[in-house]
Amino acid sequence: MAKEMTYIGKRTPGLDERDKVLGNVIYADDFTLPDMLYARVFRATKPSALIKKLNVEKARNLPGVACVLTADDVPNNESISNVVGQTTEVGLLEAKHQVLVKNRVRYYGEAVALVAADTIDAANRALELIEVEYEEIPGVFDPIAAMKPDAPKLHGNNNIIAQWKLRKGNIEKAFAESDVVVENTYRTPRQEHAHLEPESGVAWVDDMGVINIRSATQVIEHYRDVAAVLGIPQSMVRIEGTIMGGAFGGKEDVTVEVFLGLLAWKTRKPVKLTFSREEMGFGRQKRHPYILKYKTGATKDGKLTAMEAEIISDAGAYVYLSPWVLLYSTVHSTGPYFIPNVKVDSFSVLTNNIMTSAFRGFGAMQVAFAYESQMDELAEKLNMDPFELRKKNFLKKGSETANYQKITSDVLLKESVEKALGALGEKSTSSGSKKIGRGFACSWQSYGRMTYLHDTSSAWVGLELDGSAVVRSGIPDLGGGQRESLRAIAAQILGLKIEEVHVISTDSQVTPLAGTVTATRALFMSGNAVKLASENVLNIITRTASKMLKVSAEDLYLRDKLVYTSGGESIPLVKVIKECAAEGSMPQSLATYKAPFTDPIKTDVIKDPVFADFTFGAQAAEVEVDTETGIVTILKYASAQDIGQAINVNRAEGQIEGGAAQGIGFGLMEDYLEEKGVPLTWNLATYLIPTSKDLPDIQSIILESKSGKGPFGAKGVGEPSITAAAPALVSAIYDAVGVRIKHIPATPERIYWSLHNSDT
Amino acid sequence: MNNFKFFKPQSFKELLDIKDELLSAGYPLAGGSNLLVYIKENMVKSGTLIDISSIEELKGINKVDGSIEIGAAETITNILESSLINRELPFFSLSLKDFGNPLIRNKATIGGNLADASPVADTAPPLLVLGAFVSVVSRSGTRKIPVAELFTGPRKNKLEENEVIQKIIIPIPLEGKGAFLKLGQRKGTSISVTSVAVWIESSSDKFRNIKIALGGVAPTPVRALNTEKAFSGKNIDRNSIKTFAETLRKDIRPISDVRGSAEYRTEVSINLLKRAVYECLEMEE
Q1: Interface-testing mutation among A128, A635, A694, A755, with chain B (most B C-beta atoms within 10 A)
Q2: Potential cystine with B207: which of A530, A699, A731, B231 (Cβ 3.0-4.6 Å)?
Q3: Tell me, what's the ipTM?
Q4: Contact assignment for A691 to B268 by CB distance below 8 Å
Q5: Angle between helical axes of A748-755 and A725-737 (0-180°, round to 10)
Q6: Model pLDDT for residues B196-208, shown as the tens digit of each residue
Q7: Mean pLDDT across the stretch A446-470?
Q8: Of A669, A672, A613, which Cα lies nearest the Cα of A644?
Q9: Which CATH architecture does the domain made up of B4-51 adopt?
């Protein structure tokens, strides 16, 4: 490795940034092939119904239409996934999915048929010719109602599809001995990912008979799902990922891949499918809305004594990742605080609402709104500064969490709050009906997958004869610069210029499988894998060079394509590579990084470590609240995150800013509304996300404890950056006008009525 | 889009001829910021799109006999940047600064915004308090319709099937001051939850000729005639302004939708009206 940091912790412009700005990146929808068909999905327009008649003949006979597929045409239309750790109290252990509706529609927008045609116009016309007769059946749209025994059932005989528990100490005794107890119910919205790039892909069957799917996905391993649906060997499906224009968890579940695989397989022609913006509204998953009942106690000197919570998530009509999202919520439900007595019961419940699944924050975000609001209210009751209260209770390195997991990295929460609050500078002054307030919130968020999943990531690194390097890693790049981080790590280790390293990524048959770009695991896992492989290559080089230079290998380092001795002597890297080749020890390595492993979860009581490590951070806001309209203007904003070690400072700041922006949307305006399962806000005119005029200048503050499990001590930042935004804003609103919003988003109307005491 | 024909008339006369022939099946297309959305959402399913973007008779911003005349196909950006309007009637250009967003303002036209007759058309409340007219033309002649009479319901206007709006005529007030306040759910690219325009022609200690109009709180943009009456002739006193503004409850009939409840719209409209009056009178809040 080069002696000094050349790329780690620097602001190196990425090689992809210019291409993105110039529009040179070939995103999923930019790709076309000769004779390509265009696909559309026919979707149900009832939230709960039986299909009495489905007639696609007119559509099939329309000129230009290549095929119309229904459930009958899908080799394996239904699949089942098991949820670990669930007792028989939970009725449905086997979670069912269907590719296309066979008989029963469970949510508005569910896919019923697929069309592929010569032109997009013909495909659209074919959709209009599909005839469907529904018989509406009773649905259930409220998760609490859905938990009742007599509620209409979505699958099986119980709508609760997962439950998790935390049990620590004795809460009854602890509450009885507490000096203050606060009890509240919080609600969080159904947030839409609203990524700029819609779900999209092109599929074709190649001359070897392999189904190739070039799609925007966070998970190239979905080739296995395509193979399962078609009933063909996994080796006969290849997913080639693309650079994504955002995903945020929205491209974590299968999106277009199975539909494309089916259509290409049936037609033997290239097929393109891109979701429309409206389809992104009603045809795909959202963040789970939560109902969180919290009770928290403390002593009069501010020590937390006990916490009890009931957490209910609306899973929508199919299971997807709901049980795991709920597991995250449960583990993170205490916040980054040591609480000796904890009892948490959490439930994920099926309804006839739109399905919900992965979204940046993955269940750790909804609970942050609750646990931080509780801390603020406790501080007020104790007449204590909210930061003082938190300082007395922060987890520390070595602390044990409520799932009996020891914190193994540094916890820079105090420093994060100080930096975030400090960055706000002098407080603005209220004038007339416009009141100024400030707030902050802390968060913790795991990075890396659940350790019982035994996560691994592989990468291959090799040197070319001219000394340039190639990295192969399956990790997709969802726009955050995952590929560029790998480039920087390899360049750092091999002493190369960054443009001398080429990264080939996200191709299930070309790049070693690296796992998903989800769970804030890409840098942690693939970064470590590329570091390992690069170090192996470095070792091959120094071993050979040590023989050539007759010095010990430990004394050698690489810089500018020269191998140096500590005495300053050097030989060209290319000569060493030639020698390696002559010896038959090629300077290349396939390495696999293994995350910490734990035993599988056996029961629904979580009493073992679940995550490898956590990222800790704080966000702070100064807001102006207009008491006559309820409008909130964010005047100042700062987010401080201990990310262990920044790989590329520009990218890390991009994550911190983006997380804050999306968190601000979640806190103030975003909510996908449905009325009895029928969507009301399925386009971007009605589903509002913050515009540049709504967002403040977000100050990104990077702390580097170098204590993480990622490469060079890095922790993850993608998800942790979103978590504390909503509670920080709600706290600032309270500081400004004295009302605490418990049902976010804190829309102008909600704030207005909270101020003006109406029961609306 | 296969159900549509496209026609680009080469002259104003040709436009009037084709409109006369196609009647309601002919859709004048200027910026398309509404029409293309309606097509995409299947609210308009077929017809002929008549591209009016290069008809000279629909262009221009001029001062004529004490009025400002704005061609119907002038974009919102052109109006905002017009030195004539900024000099003669800065209230009107100021009132358009939060219209849509820069991209929409570059495409959307004033004629389109009025013809669309949305309850939340952001050009309407300011034009209502200014007593503006639209000049509409067909093969059979020209007539003037006060903006106050133009709207007959949500997305319904008084135009005959063969008529097009040629220009908007705004009499330049001899004295007074205006204010326009728009409240949306967010700050950028927002659709009004409610909007309030006020013009006060007063240099004395009494309210004289106060005009009030609102958007988003009734099936059409509306003048608040009862509220105007409540203010009229009264002493200017900051404490009574809120009381007079309460009269709005008689003038508006908002609905509840995803953007806000009827009750919220009513309350904030009153508060915005109070604020707009303060702004006209240059009073501190």
Answers
A1: A694
A2: B231
A3: 0.95
A4: no
A5: 40
A6: 999 999 767 899 8
A7: 96
A8: A613
A9: 2-Layer Sandwich (3.30)
